[in-house]
C-alpha cells in the first residue's frame, strides 16, 4: 500500500491500469468533493482539458447547449470523457478553436483512449446513424410514466396528511421510491430539458450531487477507482471492486448492500445538512423539497397529536 493508494502490484488489487485519485475515500464523500479532488489530480489550472489541449470555456458558459452547470462544475478538470460521450454527433473543431489556449504538458490520468478507428468511436459512429433516425432523449412513454409516478406520490402524500395510516404511508413511499429511480434518467440531459431531474430531490437526496456522482463519475469511470458510486460505500465496509473478500463478507455482502441502499437516503440528507452548515455547500431551492413534505405532514397531523 503506497501513500496514494494500493500498490497495483499487490495481490488481489483491481486492474493496475486504474488511477487512484486524491481524497478517494471518506464518510463525507460527495459530488463537489469529487470534483475538487479531480481539479488537483488533473492539474489544468483554471482551464478545461480535452484530450491533449487546454481550453478556456468561461466565455462559453451561457452558450453551452447542455446548460451552464456542466461547464461551471467541471472547471479545472479533464473533461475528455464527458466531451466524447455526451456529444454523440460531434462538436465542430472551429468552435473548439475559439477557446483553445495551449497544449497540455502533463499526461492524462484516465486510461481511456478515443482513437478514430478504436472501439468507442466506431460504436459511436454506428449509434449516431440510428439516433439521427429515432431521436435522442427520453421517449414520451418515459416522460408520462415519471410524471404519473410523481403526481401519484403527491396525491398520496396529501391523502396521508388527511388520513394518516401505515398502509397509506407504504403506498406513498412506493410511489416516491419509483419516482426517485425514474427521475435519475434526466441527470444526463441538457439543463433546459432536464427539469424533471428535480423529482429526484423529492426524496432525501440531491439531484445536483448525484448528477455529478452518476453522470460524470459512475457513467464515465465505471468500476474504476474514480467511480464515486463504488467508492462511496467502502467506508461502510462494502467493496464492489474485483478484490478478494473474506468469507464473512462473501456471505453478507449482498444483503448488506440492500440495507446500505436504504440507509444511504437519510445518511445523504444528514451529510448534506452538515456540508451546508459547516462547509462550502450552498443551500439550493430543490434541497427544500423533502423537508417541506415533513413540515406538511407535521402540520396536517397536529390536531391528531393533540
Textual characterization of the structure:
It is built from 12 helices and 3 strands, in the order H-E-E-H-H-H-E-H-H-H-H-H-H-H-H. It has 306 residues and is mainly alpha-helical. The chain has a 3-stranded antiparallel sheet. Strand 1 and strand 2 form a beta hairpin. Helix 1 (31-42) crosses helix 8 (207-218) and helix 6 packs antiparallel against helix 7 (166-183). The longest helix is centred in the C-terminal third of the chain and has 32 residues, at 247-278. The chain starts with 30 loop residues before the first helix and ends with a helix. The model is unreliable at 1-12 (pLDDT under 50).
Topology:
Layout: H1 31-42, E1 48-50, E2 53-55, H2 68-73, H3 80-86, H4 93-97, E3 100-103, H5 119-134, H6 140-162, H7 166-183, H8 207-218, H9 228-231, H10 247-278, H11 289-300, H12 302-305
Antiparallel strand pairs: 1-2, 2-3
Helix pairs in contact: 1-8, 6-7, 6-11
Morphology call = globular
| Average pLDDT for all residues | 87
DSSP helix count? Answer: 12
Read across the widest sheet, the strand sequence of neighbours is 1-2-3
Rg (C-alpha, Å): 22 Å
User: What string, H for helix and E for strand, traces the elements in order?
Assistant: HEEHHHEHHHHHHHH
- Could you give a short account of the major beta sheet? 3 strands, antiparallel
Helix content: 40-55%
Query: Low-confidence runs (pLDDT<50, min 5 residues)?
Result: 1-12
Question: Strand-residue fraction?
Answer: under 5%
Distance between the termini: 60 Å
Amino acid at each position: 500500500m503506497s501513500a496514494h493508494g494500493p500498490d497495483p502490484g499487490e495481490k488481489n488489487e483491481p486492474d493496475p491500469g486504474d488511477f487512484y485519485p486524491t481524497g478517494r475515500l471518506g464518510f463525507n464523500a460527495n459530488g463537489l468533493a469529487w470534483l475538487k479532488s479531480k481539479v488537483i489530480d488533473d492539474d489544468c489550472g483554471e482551464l478545461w482539458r480535452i484530450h491533449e489541449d487546454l481550453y478556456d470555456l468561461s466565455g462559453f458558459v451561457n452558450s453551452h447547449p447542455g446548460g451552464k452547470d456542466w461547464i461551471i462544475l467541471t472547471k479545472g478538470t479533464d473533461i475528455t470523457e464527458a466531451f466524447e460521450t455526451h456529444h454523440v454527433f460531434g462538436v465542430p473543431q472551429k468552435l473548439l478553436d475559439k477557446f483553445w489556449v495551449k497544449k497540455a504538458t502533463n499526461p492524462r490520468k484516465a486510461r481511456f483512449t478515443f482513437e478514430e478507428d478504436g472501439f468507442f468511436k466506431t460504436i459511436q459512429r454506428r449509434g449516431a446513424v440510428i439516433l439521427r433516425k429515432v431521436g435522442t432523449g427520453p421517449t414520451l412513454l418515459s416522460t408520462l410514466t415519471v410524471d404519473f409516478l410523481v403526481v401519484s406520490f403527491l396525491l398520496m402524500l396529501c391523502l396521508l396528511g388527511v388520513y394518516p395510516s401505515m398502509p397509506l404511508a407504504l403506498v406513498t413511499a412506493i410511489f416516491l421510491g419509483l419516482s426517485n429511480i425514474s427521475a435519475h434518467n434526466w441527470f444526463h440531459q441538457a439543463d433546459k430539458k432536464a427539469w424533471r431531474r428535480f423529482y429526484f430531490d423529492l426524496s432525501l437526496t440531491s439531484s445536483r450531487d448525484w448528477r455529478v456522482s452518476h453522470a460524470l463519475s459512475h457513467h464515465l469511470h465505471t468500476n474504476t477507482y474514480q467511480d464515486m458510486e463504488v467508492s462511496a460505500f467502502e467506508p461502510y465496509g462494502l467493496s464492489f471492486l474485483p478484490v478478494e473478500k473474506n468469507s464473512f463478507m462473501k456471505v453478507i455482502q449482498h444483503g448488506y448492500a440492500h440495507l446500505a441502499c436504504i440507509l444511504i437516503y437519510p445518511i445523504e440528507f444528514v451529510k448534506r445538512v452538515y456540508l451546508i452548515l459547516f462547509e462550502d455547500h450552498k443551500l439550493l431551492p430543490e434541497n427544500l423539497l423533502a423537508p417541506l413534505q415533513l413540515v406538511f405532514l407535521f402540520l396536517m397531523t397536529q390536531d391528531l397529536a393533540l
